[in-house]
Specification:
single chain, 218 residues, alpha/beta, Rossmann fold, 2 domains, 6-stranded parallel beta sheet, two-stranded parallel sheet, 9 helices
Length: 218
């Protein structure tokens, strides 16, 4: 898919499962927690944690009971660790192409400030963003229009495009506001996989692509 970019367009991205697979963040956090909790047998604990997660069990409750660790301490470790994650193929080159064409790059993501910013630093992407909107920092979550209007306020009188993955909440507001919207198809590893429940006009992006690598800047 081609996007024509100049100095009057802002290309805005979601983060989790759009620029990288969020499951890799979970793996990274679980590994660090397992190593802290049971350094001599962390591989076995990690395997157990991941199996519990996939079966819909409460992983932190299990660890808390087995190792006498407060759940809030585990949650803090999960949220605040520096993750070992990598962006999808083509993300960095796409960002470079947008910048070379004079476009602005924004981010709209739900989550805690430290967690999301740690992800951006680990991915090596934070340097590209002209505007970052994180739900904890702005006080509202998608699909609240305020999150998108914050981009419009920062860069008025522009064209806007939102690239994201979650049909349930990502595209409602940009569609209402007249933005272009592009959905990244689930590669089979997405955390949220209930998109079939929302496949009607208010929720759907205007276009779909298989991956970020399929987007070209002209």
């Amino acid at each position: 898919m081609d996007i024509k970019v100049n100095n009057k367009i802002v290309i805005v991205f979601d983060l989790d499962d759009t620029l990288y697979n969020e499951i890799s963040y979970l793996r990274s956090a679980y590994q660090e927690i397992a190593q802290k909790v049971d350094a001599n047998n962390w591989e076995i604990l990690y395997a157990k944690m991941f199996s519990l997660y996939r079966c819909g069990e409460n992983v932190f409750q299990y660890i808390s009971e087995q190792y006498s660790i407060d759940i809030q301490e585990l949650i803090s470790l999960y949220r605040n660790h520096v993750p070992n994650i990598k962006p999808f193929k083509g993300v960095s080159s796409l960002f470079e192409d947008i910048k070379k064409a004079g476009g602005k790059i924004g981010l709209i993501t739900d989550g805690r400030s430290r967690t999301q910013r740690n992800k951006l630093e680990a991915l090596g992407l934070i340097k590209y963003f002209d505007e970052i909107i994180i739900s904890e920092e702005i006080g509202s979550e998608k699909p609240n229009e305020a999150n998108y209007k914050a981009i419009e306020k920062a860069y008025p009188d522009c064209l806007y495009c939102y690239i994201a993955d979650n049909i349930r909440k990502d595209f409602i507001s940009p569609n209402k506001l007249g933005w272009q919207s592009i959905g990244i198809l689930d590669n089979g590893l997405n955390i949220h996989f209930d998109g079939h429940l929302y496949m009607n006009k208010p929720f759907m992006p205007k276009y779909f692509v298989n991956s970020v690598a399929d987007i070209n800047i002209t």
